[in-house]
Design goal:
- The protein has 2 domains: 191 residues, Periplasmic binding protein-like II (D-Maltodextrin-Binding Protein, domain 2), CATH 3.40.190.10; 223 residues, Periplasmic binding protein-like II (D-Maltodextrin-Binding Protein, domain 2, 3-Layer(aba) Sandwich), CATH 3.40.190.
- With 454 residues, it is α/β, with parallel strands linked by helices.
- The N and C termini lie far apart (84 Å).
- Strands 1, 2, 3, 4, 5, 6, 7, 8 and 9 form a 9-stranded mixed β-sheet that branches.
Length: 454
């Protein structure tokens, strides 16, 4: 009986100890500092149970995610966070989100108490500045080995690779959009105009279009980054032997790169378009809405733009208008298409309190399943090669993904430069189109701007 009593006492003490530990953990959670912004509502409670994946098994503690809510909305974020919570019932997840989240969270980033995981997008965000300020975790080695919850290497399934910062990676592109050239597929078929596949065929069909009294090519002169992204930058990569590293050299402001042979050849092609009268001279005074309306009204046949074009103009699209997308038109005959991306990335804070949970979340979301969900929920493309053919995504997004999954496409890095260099790029292309400078003078302008930024 003595032994039985002793065993009973021991069991009782163990149970009391376990209860006290749980109470202590619960009390610690209540002491946690509240986020700067209102926590986004959750679709399900964090206690919803599910079998955890290998990539996220055993995650505990607290984990905070910051994301901007803009044109893509927050439906996808709530969806994937809910699934992550189900896979990690012992992890307390906080969503700090909103349209003004970057400004609201700025004090915490400055004070060194940032969230663990951040989606870098929207007003007030600047990826390059965050890297310069040492706010983001170096993920170079992690990304080399990281696999998603399906066991696939992240870098293998990604359409676009992480931005290179002097040999290091601090971010991973989540949104993958592409600049390119748009036209009305139905109208072209009716007119007997061929879809261009290279610069030679583009010039040929543009001459036919011009002869019909329609301006072949219109652009957004008030915002010249449209024509830089949709036309010039792809030409630069093509003239560099389809080697996208020249974009990285431009981004790093390498001395002499802006006067290099590939860039001069690309600018010469732009000059050919200009001098043949294929570029609508009135474009210089147009903003994005005006140029897009002229395009929809068939006052022009081609326009450089991003994949958001169809959704942005959906209320103004005429009946029977069929958007079609070409990644690039400046490559020589027989050469590959070039995609110039615009991206919005995710990253882990250098001072993250739960970096392991942040890494696990990144691996969790980069799957084909969530890429399809992204396309259906946002009308855009996630940076994952996925089959969208049976999804409810729009036709332009599906066409773009077909290109991205093709071996006949080169994906260049995104060109990310500071504000002063970006302004010089925009001013210089307009001056070239307006016949105020030559390609050589374009190069001189850019070298001067790069030197000042260095």
């Amino acid at each position: 009986m003595t032994n039985v009593k002793k065993k009973s006492v021991i069991i009782t003490l163990v149970l009391l100890l376990a209860v006290s530990m749980l109470a202590a953990c619960s009390g610690a959670n209540k002491e946690t500092e509240k986020p700067a912004a209102t926590e986004a509502p959750k679709e399900t409670e964090a206690t919803t149970s599910s079998e955890p994946t290998a990539a996220t098994e055993g995650l505990t503690g607290e984990f905070e995610i910051q994301y901007f809510v803009g044109g893509y909305g927050d439906k996808w974020w709530k969806h994937v966070v809910s699934e992550f919570e189900k896979a990690n019932p012992n992890l307390k997840v906080t969503q700090t989100a909103g349209s003004q989240i970057n400004e609201q969270m700025r004090p915490r980033w400055i004070q060194g108490t940032p969230p663990d995981f951040v989606y870098i997008d929207g007003a007030g965000s600047n990826e390059a500045q965050m890297v310069t300020d040492g706010q983001l975790l170096d993920m170079t080695e992690f990304l080399k080995e990281a696999k998603n919850k399906d066991g696939k290497a992240l870098l293998d399934i990604a359409i676009g690779q992480p931005t290179d910062y002097a040999g290091k990676n601090f971010t991973m592109p989540l949104v993958f959009g592409s600049w390119g050239t748009f036209y009305d597929k139905a109208w072209f078929a009716k007119q007997g105009w061929e879809k261009p596949t290279d610069f030679e065929s583009f010039l040929a069909v543009s001459e036919k279009i011009k002869a019909s009294g329609v301006s072949p090519y219109i652009h957004t002169g008030v915002y010249p980054y449209y024509i830089n992204g949709g036309l010039l930058n792809s030409a630069i990569v093509s003239e560099n032997g389809n080697d996208g590293s020249i974009i990285s050299r431009m981004a790093s402001l390498e001395e002499g790169v802006f006067k290099s042979e590939p860039i001069m050849k690309a600018l010469d092609k732009v000059v050919q378009m200009r001098d043949k009268g294929l570029v609508d001279p009135g474009s210089i005074a147009l903003n994005h809405t005006d140029s897009q309306m002229a395009f929809l009204q068939h006052k022009a046949a081609f326009i450089p733009n991003g994949l958001w074009l169809e959704n942005e103009m959906i209320k103004d699209v005429p009946a029977g208008f069929e958007f079609d997308f070409i990644p690039s038109i400046m490559q020589d005959k027989g050469e590959k298409y070039v995609a110039i991306p615009y991206t919005a990335s995710v990253a882990i804070a250098e001072k993250a309190k739960n970096p392991e949970a942040a890494k696990a979340f990144l691996q969790f979301i980069f799957t084909e399943k969530y890429a399809v969900d992204w396309a259906e929920m946002t009308g855009a493309i996630m940076n994952v090669k996925a089959d969208l053919s049976t999804s409810s995504a729009g036709p332009v997004v599906k066409t773009a993904m077909d290109y991205f999954n093709s071996t006949e496409l080169v994906v260049a890095p995104a060109l990310i430069v500071n504000a002063d260099v970006e302004k010089a790029l925009q001013d210089s292309i307009i001056a070239l189109l307006d016949k105020r400078i030559t390609p050589a003078e374009w190069g001189e302008r850019m070298e001067k701007a790069a030197a000042a930024a260095r």
